[in-house]
Amino acid sequence: MNPALTKTLRLLGLLEAGRRAELKYRKRQPRALPDAVIIGGQKCGTSSLHNYLTQAPGVIAPLRKEVHYFDLHYEKGEDWYRAHFGRMGEPGLNIDASPYYIFHPLVADRMQSLLPGARLIVLLRDPVKRAYSHYWHERDKRRESLSFEAALEAESGRIDEAGKQLAAGEIARSEEHRLHSYLARGRYADQLERWLALYPPRQFHFILFESFVKRPLETLNAALGFLDLPPVASARLEPRNTRRYPSMQPETAQRLQKYFAPHNARLEQLLDLSLNWN
Questions:
Q1: Please, are residues 90 and 59 in contact by the beta-carbon 8 Å criterion?
Q2: How is domain 31-126+187-271 classified at the architecture level of CATH?
Q3: Model-level pTM greater than 0.85?
Q4: pLDDT tens digits for 246-264?
């Protein structure tokens, strides 16, 4: 094995071991629940927003950015979840950010049961571009071997049954559902209707990725205002988890724009937003 890779893996192992030890220690302390949650969507700027928010005074950074309690680690229990956040009574706002939350069929119910008063931040992106970014994310991590067009054709067979089983509680998790949901994650209205049935509109803050990229500080300060925190004059605004990849085939882009058009129209009506994605 490459010596540099061996060193990296060793360091990652030590980091994870240290995190497990810290979690074990924290579970013996009274810990807070998060006040706010960035629930998604994936490849819509959640990592960047979380990074910017945790730079602001009054925000307590969690032990890890993506806790994934309500989707991937629910069986570990509330004490495990609390261990990721600040001490009970510690001044400051605790925040969770896990972009699979919005898409997982059981998370809204689970979260509402434990965090009924949480403020929820949702980032939305042109679903055509989101799908393509998601695809290359999985390709780069070697979790996708199909071409983009083939992956779109295969998606229903890969994820539909798993989605039903997750919703019914028949399985605890599905890698296919989480990793290969390129189209389904962009049908935002389907997902948000579930959340809006459980939380009042005043507890949501919606951010359009395209505006976030153009005006990051303004977007950050709007999010801070939603969280009842003062604005900041500056922050280290380096985007996270960006990558370069080939351009999408024009005919594929046109086909996806047509596919998403009715879903985008439903979203505009649901949120009373003008999206201008097509």
A1: no
A2: 3-Layer(aba) Sandwich (3.40)
A3: yes
A4: 999 999 999 999 999 999 9
